[in-house]
């Protein structure tokens, strides 16, 4: 059981990360990651939707026939997205305005329907919730990384607009890392998101390759050790 | 029985002698007339940018090559990095801040060229991709070309120029905007910029062209710069480094479209001859669009490729938001290259078509 | 492959294959008459109306000599072509002289053209007029490392070293010796390599004059190769696909129209050994095609083998069947045996029926019908049917008696068990086991007969005897038998109180009939 859970956690965070490996949900990923806080807002919203939709779908899966499962999944997801949207409208209005259309668009985020289809419709509620949580965290982490990098490169700040999410007290959270005469617009514009995303994926691949290399080396050294003992 | 040399290669047993390195060097040499004209009209800035850009280009190429575990010296010696740096240095405003050049060149070499696999594998013209990144990222810095030197209130020495580029202020403390002031204390945009602004102010073409920044055949400075690049381009043509298809296709389509627009449309078109001798048309036609790696490679395809660039330049100048569109046009045409190449394959011997 | 058209043009190729080579030139200058004679013979053979001799414009002596030799011959013309590699190629010369292109994959004869080398014409003359076989040829020995480069008559088989020594060869460091020209010839590693019929040149160049290709650099798609290509291919695209081993694309870009002239690699500024890439790719593609043919053959072979095995299996089965039938016929002659088989079959069916869930229904239904309603299965003999019915009835009667006597249930179970076992074993027998079945059936029948006799004496004793006789049979049956006795005993329990022989007979017959019906419908 624990091994299976460990697998789910690892899948969501790294080996099968929705943003880095499955490349799902790129539209919001690329569109709203111009600042860290925007990324965080959308990340949390997506995370919540993922968890509850996965849970719900795994609970109702035995009553959903194969032919109509996709509409049913979408309806479930859409309901939760609507709830989230209303909540954000009520409590974080600034962020709600700044994320705009991308909150309702969470419905069409392939990462969510993808997990519903690939995982929640086949597994129990506990595993599904965990999977949703981990996938959500993995997705949010990439959003934050990209959002942070783009914000720093583009306008030299970090946590700009934190008050939109956390309330007025967070206004002071904004960190001015360095000041530009001119903004580096490319980082803020969508092409910058694509390039940044590409670089993050490349980074992940480098890390994976290094690890694979290490594994091979370990095996080799073990072999060598055995040879010496035989001799 | 004697055994001969172990050099055992497939035929042919010899080569013509012109190498890629020589091709690149020749292109560099061909920019000299244009470069000197730019120096004359726009001051020392171009020289400082040239040194800066080539230095950064070679450095970033070396860094990526070492990361890719390739032979650094040998690959660097092909001169393509130097050429990319050079072309970018000639395209950006002479007094642009140093970090603009560094970002542009590093982007061109590292991302556009090396990440795609190095020389021969880049889909896009590295210099122009770098230029476009700068243009959309730092529109202000990238469009602030100074008026030509003879019209300026302050002219800068080489040291002063370097000081401006690296600090933003001249030794005497003038900033870029002050330095751009004309003798009469006013400022003026580039000819193409000015044209768009003036058109928006309901001025007629002839009124606009009577402004002091316009010469007889184009911008008062850029007409000579263009002529100098045309000269360099003809040298390349004569040496067989480039072929006529792309430059001719590009210039002809730009010219023809402008003629048509001038003859039929309202009084809003930049006149045909001036069109060719303003901005970076000749530089683009002979030095940018002819980059063989990212251009079409079939004879027919080259003409189409050139014509496409010309048409795009016309459209961007006529209707676009940016005053000049060489870089955008080249990049857009680069994207069409595989398609063009596919449909313009020459008729192979013995095949009926 | 016979030409689709009659030959109307003979072309003599007097264009030297490659730079450096002058063997054809020498031949034409000194043996123009012989060449023209050979041309006439060839013309006669292929019945060509016209003969053209093509010569490059850098060979004035040869042109003069041949023009003089053909002065009086109306239909042999000398044509001068510009000196440009690779005009000596067959397809290229045809295009130069006639403006026609040899279709891809075709031969010149498709256009009504035959091309021969001037050397061939000379050899034809030697062979036909002088009766001399081809034992020597003109070979150009040239290169900067030779003291006296020249053309020589070399006997076929002469070692290269001899020719080099003859011309005063002083090898330089890393000397390359090329057999053939600089563009398409091949380096030879061993100086004892002999002159063969196609050796037109031995080239010993200096590294200075003919520098070996440098290291390969990246292709910059400059297109010089495409300009140089005589077949108008796109070498820069081809090398790209060749490196990627994209064979479909290579075919699409007509790799096989490449004549490997080497012009592209010669002009390449990045010094890419293009021809080598093309040769490798061509070899790969050919190999893959061979593999395809091979695997296709293997597939056909495999299918045929499968077919044959299947056929043999069918034949074997048919044979078995035939022999089994023969045996069955032999048995049929013995009526008692036949009866026994029939009895066994019927009994087996009856038991199967008894074991099925529907048995209750069929029993009640069959009660209304008469026992004389015989079914195909029970047809063979009425006697057998009776016997079966008797047997079953007997078993039931026994059980009923037992219950009446309040005998132990264990005994009933024991009884039922072997009976069921028997059923399953009969069910599983195939036609091939008819013999065995018959035996088993006979044994059962025997046991039953005994049982009947014993019953008359004392019922308790019979039960014991029965269990004994049946037990060995149970061993041969499947173990699953144990599960079913209760079901099997159900119909038996229905009738214990009214244990009248006749009625039971009817019931049993009905069961058998129902069984047979079921078998039929199946």
Automatic annotation (TrEMBL), chain A:
Intracellular or extracellular location(s): Cell inner membrane; Endomembrane system
Residues passing through the membrane, by range: 36-56, 68-87, 93-112, 132-149, 184-207
Membrane topology field: Multi-pass membrane protein
Top-level taxon of the source organism: Bacteria
GO biological processes: electron transport chain
UniProt keyword annotations, A-Z: Cell inner membrane, Cell membrane, Electron transport, Membrane, Translocase, Transmembrane, Transmembrane helix, Transport
Enzyme Commission number, as recorded: 7.-.-.-
GO cellular component: endomembrane system; plasma membrane
Quaternary structure and partners: The complex is composed of six subunits: RnfA, RnfB, RnfC, RnfD, RnfE and RnfG.
Family: Belongs to the NqrDE/RnfAE family.
HAMAP family: RsxE_RnfE
Role, per record: Part of a membrane-bound complex that couples electron transfer with translocation of ions across the membrane.
Name of the protein described by the UniProt record: Ion-translocating oxidoreductase complex subunit E
Species for this entry: Psychrosphaera haliotis
Biological classification of the source: Bacteria, Pseudomonadati, Pseudomonadota, Gammaproteobacteria, Alteromonadales
Gene: rnfE
From TrEMBL, chain B:
GO BP of this protein: electron transport chain; transmembrane transport
Subcellular location field: Cell inner membrane
Pfam families xref list: NQR2_RnfD_RnfE
Ranges that cross the membrane: 47-68, 75-92, 98-116, 128-148, 217-237, 244-266, 272-290, 302-320, 326-344
GO CC annotations on file: plasma membrane
Modified residues (FMN phosphoryl threonine): 190
Membrane topology: Multi-pass membrane protein
Enzyme Commission code(s) on record: 7.-.-.-
Assembly description: The complex is composed of six subunits: RnfA, RnfB, RnfC, RnfD, RnfE and RnfG.
Family: Belongs to the NqrB/RnfD family.
Record function comment: Part of a membrane-bound complex that couples electron transfer with translocation of ions across the membrane.
Protein name per Swiss-Prot or TrEMBL: Ion-translocating oxidoreductase complex subunit D
Source organism per UniProt: Psychrosphaera haliotis
Gene encoding the protein: rsxD
């Amino acid at each position: 059981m624990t091994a299976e859970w460990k697998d789910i956690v690892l899948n969501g965070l790294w080996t099968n990360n929705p943003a880095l490996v499955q490349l799902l949900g790129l539209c919001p990923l690329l569109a709203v990651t111009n600042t860290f806080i925007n990324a965080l807002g959308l990340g949390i919203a997506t995370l919540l939707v993922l968890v509850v939709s996965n849970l719900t779908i795994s609970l109702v899966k035995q009553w959903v026939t194969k032919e109509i499962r996709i509409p049913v999944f979408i309806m479930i997801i859409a309901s939760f997205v609507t709830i989230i949207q209303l909540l954000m409208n009520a409590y974080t209005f600034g962020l709600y305005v700044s994320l705009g259309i991308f909150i309702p668009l969470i419905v069409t985020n392939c990462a969510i329907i993808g997990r519903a289809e690939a995982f929640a419709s086949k597994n129990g509620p506990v595993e599904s919730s965990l999977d949703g949580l981990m996938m959500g965290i993995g997705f949010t982490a990439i959003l934050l990384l990209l959002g942070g990098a783009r914000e720093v490169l583009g306008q030299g700040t970090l946590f700009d607009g934190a008050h939109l999410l956390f309330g007025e007290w967070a206004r002071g959270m904004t960190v001015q890392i360095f000041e530009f005469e001119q903004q580096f617009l490319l980082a803020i514009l969508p092409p910058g998101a694509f390039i940044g995303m590409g670089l993050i994926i490349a980074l992940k691949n480098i890390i994976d390759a290094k690890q694979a290399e290490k594994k091979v080396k370990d095996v080799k050294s073990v072999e060598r050790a055995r040879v010496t003992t035989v001799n | 029985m004697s055994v001969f040399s172990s050099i055992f290669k497939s035929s042919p047993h010899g080569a013509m002698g012109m190498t890629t390195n020589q091709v690149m060097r020749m292109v560099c040499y061909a920019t000299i007339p244009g470069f000197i004209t730019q120096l004359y009209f726009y001051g020392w800035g171009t020289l400082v940018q040239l040194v800066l850009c080539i230095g950064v280009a070679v450095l970033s190429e070396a860094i990526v090559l070492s990361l890719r575990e390739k032979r650094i010296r040998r690959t660097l010696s092909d001169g393509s990095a130097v050429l990319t740096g050079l072309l970018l240095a000639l395209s950006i405003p002479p007094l642009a801040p140093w970090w603009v050049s560094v970002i542009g060149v590093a982007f061109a070499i590292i991302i556009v060229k090396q990440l795609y696999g190095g020389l021969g594998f880049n889909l896009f013209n590295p210099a122009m991709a770098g230029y476009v990144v700068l243009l959309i990222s730092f529109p202000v810095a990238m469009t602030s070309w100074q008026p030509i030197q003879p019209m300026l209130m302050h002219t800068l020495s080489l040291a002063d120029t370097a000081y401006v580029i690296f600090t933003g202020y001249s030794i005497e403390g003038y900033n870029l905007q002050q330095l751009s002031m004309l003798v009469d204390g006013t400022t003026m945009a580039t000819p193409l910029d000015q044209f768009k602004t003036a058109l928006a102010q309901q001025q007629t073409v002839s009124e606009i062209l009577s402004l002091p920044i316009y010469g007889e055949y184009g911008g008062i400075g850029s007409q000579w710069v263009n002529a100098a690049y045309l000269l360099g381009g003809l040298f390349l043509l004569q040496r067989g480094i480039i072929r006529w298809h792309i430059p001719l296709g590009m210039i002809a389509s730009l010219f023809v479209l402008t003629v048509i627009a001038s003859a039929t449309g309202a009084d809003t078109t930049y006149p045909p001859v001036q069109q060719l001798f303003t901005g970076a048309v000749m530089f683009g036609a002979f030095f940018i669009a002819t980059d063989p790696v990212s251009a079409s490679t079939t004879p027919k395809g080259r003409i189409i490729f050139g014509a496409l660039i010309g048409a795009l330049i016309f459209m961007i100048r006529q209707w676009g938001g940016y005053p000049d569109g060489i870089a955008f046009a080249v990049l857009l045409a680069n994207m069409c290259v595989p398609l063009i190449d596919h449909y313009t394959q020459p008729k192979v011997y013995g095949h009926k078509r | 492959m016979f030409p689709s058209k009659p030959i109307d043009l003979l072309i003599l190729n007097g264009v030297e294959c490659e730079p450096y080579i002058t063997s054809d030139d020498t031949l034409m200058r000194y043996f123009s008459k012989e060449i023209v004679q050979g041309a006439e013979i060839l013309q006669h053979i292929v019945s060509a109306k016209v003969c053209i001799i093509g010569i490059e414009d850098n060979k004035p002596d040869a042109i003069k000599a041949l023009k003089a030799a053909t002065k009086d011959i109306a239909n042999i013309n000398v044509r001068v072509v510009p000196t440009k590699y690779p005009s000596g190629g067959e397809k290229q010369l045809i295009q130069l002289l006639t403006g026609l292109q040899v279709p891809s994959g075709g031969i010149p004869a498709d256009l009504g053209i035959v091309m021969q080398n001037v050397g061939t014409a000379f050899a034809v003359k030697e062979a036909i007029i002088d009766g001399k076989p081809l034992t020597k040829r003109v070979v150009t020995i040239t290169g900067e490392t030779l003291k006296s480069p020249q053309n020589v008559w070399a006997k076929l088989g002469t070692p290269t070293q001899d020719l080099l020594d003859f011309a005063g060869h002083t090898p330089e460091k890393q000397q390359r010796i090329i057999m053939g020209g600089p563009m398409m010839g091949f380096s030879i590693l061993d100086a004892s390599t002999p002159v063969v019929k196609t050796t037109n040149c031995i080239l010993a160049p200096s590294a200075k004059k003919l520098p070996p290709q440098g290291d390969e650099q990246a292709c910059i798609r400059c297109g010089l190769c495409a300009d140089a290509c005589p077949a108008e291919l796109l070498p820069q695209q081809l090398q790209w696909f060749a490196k990627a081993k994209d064979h479909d694309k290579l075919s699409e870009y007509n790799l096989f129209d490449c004549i490997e002239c080497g012009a592209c690699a010669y002009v390449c500024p990045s010094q890419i050994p293009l021809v080598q890439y093309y040769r490798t790719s061509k070899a790969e593609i050919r190999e893959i095609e061979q593999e395809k043919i091979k695997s296709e053959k293997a597939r056909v072979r495999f299918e045929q083998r499968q077919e044959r095995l299947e056929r043999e299996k069918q034949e074997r089965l048919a044979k078995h069947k035939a022999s089994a039938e023969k045996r069955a016929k032999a048995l049929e002659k013995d009526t008692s045996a036949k009866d026994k088989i029939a009895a066994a079959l019927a009994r087996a069916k009856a038991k199967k029926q008894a074991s099925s869930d529907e048995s209750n229904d069929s029993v009640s239904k069959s009660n209304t019908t008469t026992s004389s309603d015989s079914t195909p299965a029970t047809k063979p003999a009425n006697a057998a049917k009776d016997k079966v019915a008797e047997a079953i009835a007997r078993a039931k009667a026994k059980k009923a008696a037992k219950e009446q006597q309040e005998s132990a249930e264990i005994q009933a179970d024991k009884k039922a068990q072997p009976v069921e076992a028997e059923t399953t074993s009969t069910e599983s027998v195939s036609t091939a086991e008819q013999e065995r079945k018959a035996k088993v059936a006979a044994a059962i029948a025997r046991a039953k007969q005994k049982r009947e006799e014993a019953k008359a004496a004392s019922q308790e004793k019979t039960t014991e005897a029965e269990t004994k006789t049946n037990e060995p049979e149970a061993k041969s049956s499947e173990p699953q038998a144990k599960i079913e006795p209760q079901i099997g005993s159900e119909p038996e329990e229905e009738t214990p109180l009214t244990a009248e022989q006749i009625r039971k007979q009817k019931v049993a017959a009905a069961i058998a009939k129902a069984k047979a019906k079921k078998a039929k419908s199946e």
